[in-house]
Specification:
The complex is a heterodimer of chains A (about 160) and B (about 270). Chain A has about 160 residues and is an all-alpha fold. Chain A has helices at about 1-25, 35-45, 50-65, 75-85, 95-120, 125-150. In chain A, helix 3 runs antiparallel to helix 4 and helix 4 (about 75-85) packs antiparallel against helix 5 (about 95-120). Chain B has a domain at about 110-270: Rod shape-determining protein MreC, domain 1 (Thrombin, subunit H), CATH 2.40.10. Classes of the chains: A mainly alpha (about 160), B alpha+beta (about 270). At the A-B interface, helix 1, helix 3 and helix 4 of A face helix 1, helix 2 and helix 3 of B.
């Protein structure tokens, strides 16, 4: 129960950061994705079930604030990301900092690719979005994610079963 | 509790595979529902589950906006204050210049209007710097005054600036004339704080009498107002008496001055040489 409350709190913090902090630290129109980091962090730490559930919640919340025509697209995307990253749960695999950052990077591009498909974007548009949006935002998120993984994560690794 | 445990174990099946398929299906269903249904879903979600989260987000956004607005208002306030101060300065300067202009009609061709650009920062004020120099035909020993009274004389000239030696400088001695009795004396400030005039012991001067330049020193022309006698006491020798003088022009309140383009009298110059 307490763990669930922590998840809720973490979720709210991630959304407030995305809405308030991200525009403040924007550089050349590029801002990091705190919500995606939230999903990757939870999925790695607590597994696919938690990743899928909070991926759906976070995605659905994003959908609510977006164009109603694409309601469900972000929920679907984040559900996929949560499940995929959750397969690397630390309970089963011990991941180093570099691997975690790499997972975050892959999750970022998986997120954009699935979203492109879910919303029926053309291949040209997805490619263009990848170069102009996904790549710079992904790199920014990775840079912040590296710091966050380094400082937020408990130094003692979980026991791998 | 048992139901919750059942669903947890069900969703945990296959490392979250069941949960994944469930939420994937749910998302897909939402995505492919009609626009009307989507709007209903969005409305319900916003008004129930997401409402508290939205309040938090709104509060945070409002707080951020307030902070930004506060910063902008502070900047605007500072800018307006500076503008207001500048306008005040300009207004009072215009008044002073108007007064100087009307006063300077007598010296129209021979007086230069100068602005005090620096003052001696020490406690004893013996000199000020004005913004006219040799490029403006300012020369050493030219008298400096305001409509209120005498200020001093030019003691050093640079290209674009000049140093004004004030009456309060112990090195500066001025020949003065008492207006009522027409008796002349020497005005000086031995301690850089107060002005004293030395007069003959028989002079019938009283407190309140006024002094003007006598024109005898060769530097200052005759008739520039200097100050008023405020106290009279015996001099160092029996044949002289001393009087304390309050200058008409307070040296600490000078902002603009006139520099009189008057060369030192030839006889004084020859004497000095």
């Amino acid at each position: 129960m307490i763990r669930s409350l922590w998840f809720v709190l973490f979720f709210v913090v991630a959304f407030v950061a995305q809405t308030v902090l991200a525009p403040m630290i924007q550089a050349f129109g590029v801002s990091p994705d705190f919500v995606l980091f939230f999903i990757v962090f939870l999925s790695l730490r607590h597994g696919a079930l938690v990743g899928v559930f909070w991926g759906f919640i976070a995605g659905f919340t994003e959908d609510i604030y977006s164009d109603v025509h694409w309601l469900g697209a972000a929920a679907l995307t984040k559900t996929v990301v949560g499940f995929a990253v959750g397969q690397l749960e630390e309970k089963f695999i011990n991941l180093g900092l570099v691997t975690k950052v790499a997972v975050l990077g892959v999750a970022f591009f998986l997120n954009d690719a699935v979203y492109g498909m879910a919303t029926g974007m053309s291949r040209e548009l997805v490619t263009q979005m990848f170069i102009t949006k996904s790549l710079p935002e992904g790199l920014y998120t990775l840079a912040l994610g590296t710091l966050a993984f380094h400082f937020l994560y408990p130094r003692v690794p979980r026991n791998v079963s | 509790m048992a139901v919750l445990r059942f669903f947890t174990s069900l969703f945990s099946f296959g490392r979250g595979l069941f949960a994944f398929l469930f939420f994937l299906g749910l998302s897909y269903a939402i995505l492919h529902s009609s626009v009307k249904q989507k709007m209903v879903i969005a409305d319900v979600a916003v008004s129930t589950v997401l409402y508290p989260a939205q309040i938090v987000v709104n509060k945070a956004t409002t707080w951020h906006h307030l902070e930004t607005e506060n910063k902008q208002l502070k900047e605007a306030n500072a800018r307006l204050r500076i503008e207001n101060d500048l306008l005040h300065q300009g207004f009072f300067k215009a008044l002073r210049v108007q007064k100087l202009d009307s006063f300077g009609l007598d010296y129209k061709d021979s007086a230069l209007l100068a602005e005090v650009v620096a003052k001696n920062p020490g406690r004893l004020q013996t000199s000020v710097l004005v913004n006219l120099g040799s490029h403006d035909s300012v020369e050493r020993n030219m008298p400096v005054f305001t409509p209120d009274g005498l200020v001093g004389k030019i003691s050093k000239v640079y290209d674009n600036h000049a140093l004004v030696q004030l009456m309060m400088d112990p090195q500066n001695k001025v020949s003065v004339l008492e207006n009522r009795t027409r008796i002349s004396g020497i005005l000086e400030s031995p301690d850089s704080r107060k002005l004293f005039v030395e007069l003959p012991a028989h002079a019938d001067v009283k407190v309140g009498d006024t002094l003007v330049t006598s024109g005898l020193g060769g530097i200052y022309p005759k008739g520039i107002r200097v100050g008023m006698i405020s106290r009279i006491f015996p001099g160092d020798i029996d044949v002289m008496k001393k009087a304390e003088v309050i200058p008409f022009q307070n040296p600490s309140e000078i902002e603009e001055v006139f520099v009189l383009k008057k060369k030192i009298d030839w006889i004084v110059r020859e004497y000095a040489e």
